[in-house]
Amino acid sequence: MKSVLVASGTANTGNNVVRTLSASGKVHVRALCRKPDADNAKALAALPNVTVVKGDFEDAASLKAALAGVDRALLVSPAGDAGQYDREVAFLAAAKEAGIEGTVRISTCNVLIDPNSKGVYAQAHGKIEEWIKANNAKAHGKTEEWINANDATVCDVCPNWFMTNVLWAMAEVKGYGSYTLPCSIPTKRKFAMIDPRDIGSAAAAILLSDKFAEFIAAGKVNVSGPAETNYSEQVDAINKAAGTSIQLKSCTADEYAAMLAGAGMTEHMSTSFTATVQMCAGEIPPARPYDEATSPLLLSIWKPEFDVAAWAAASAPMFK
């Protein structure tokens, strides 16, 4: 039975992956957690074929220990701060040193990624991609001996806009019955936003797949929801499922960033999130050409399950 390390095991996506892998009965799962005694970590430890291991992205010794004897790994770390690049590259370097088959890394929407972006997570993922490319000799035909010695085996999973991103606006939604965004209403384009549960199941499918080596060779796959939609249709689905009458409103980018900052988001993250809303909606040009359709390789082993209506039905109690 293969062994898979999920880092971090208690992150939303990581938690979903741990549970999916455990339910499959096909692998032994190690869930990396900073606090193994926390309730969410204990819940994972109680699952079949799951072992919780203590570790921290900033503790090289703990990463080395967690990766020892592991075959495959999932990497998902907190977005929105300047340390994301350092955390993820440290993990990927440790995984390479451990000699594992490869790492599935949760990235961000492909159209956002740009190492020169002012957006904090778009920039972090762009720089991480550059590191992977510079350290991946086989995928890029490099011949220099030192690059061959630093071959990185990684498949980035690039998810579309999360359906759950609306939850950032819950104070406004619950307090004023409105949802304000920095874009035209309706939006200038539709996009296949995704339920985070589908991101977790897609990552788990790759980790369990007999085609794992093909995913590592591909280097990147997109993952999107089952149908193109927009913010207006999501609000309509919420209103139908929850019996609410939320109104979608438009504002400027500066006004929206200020709203996010007022809700506790950092300035860099507020700017990044604002640009994300606008790029997905077609309000501003993407960092890369729009290319969000779920990759054919991924569709050969997995299909998204939850459309906006299904997500809204499951999430309705939060909006009532």
Explain what the structure shows.
It is a single chain. The termini are far apart. It contains 15 helices and nine strands. The model is unreliable at 117-126 and 134-150 (pLDDT under 50). The chain is an alpha/beta fold. It has helices spanning 12-24, 39-45, 60-67, 84-98, 120-134, 137-140, 145-148, 170-176, 196-208, 212-218, 231-242, 253-262, 267-281, 296-299, 308-319, and strands at residues 2-7, 27-33, 50-54, 72-75, 102-106, 154-159, 178-181, 220-223, 247-250.
Order of helices and strands: EHEHEHEHEHHHEHEHHEHEHHHH
Radius of gyration of CA atoms, rounded to a whole number: 20 Å
Classify the beta-strand content into a percent band. 5-15%
Helix content: 40-55%
H/I helix tally: 15
Q: How many distinct beta strands?
A: 9
Shape descriptor: globular
Derived from helix and strand composition plus strand pairing, the structural class reads: alpha/beta
**Which strands sit side by side, in order, in the main sheet?**
3-2-1-4-5-6-8
What is the mean predicted local confidence, pLDDT? Answer: 86
Main sheet summary: 7 strands, parallel
Q: Which stretches of 5+ consecutive residues score pLDDT under 50?
A: 117-126, 134-150
N-C termini distance: 45 Å
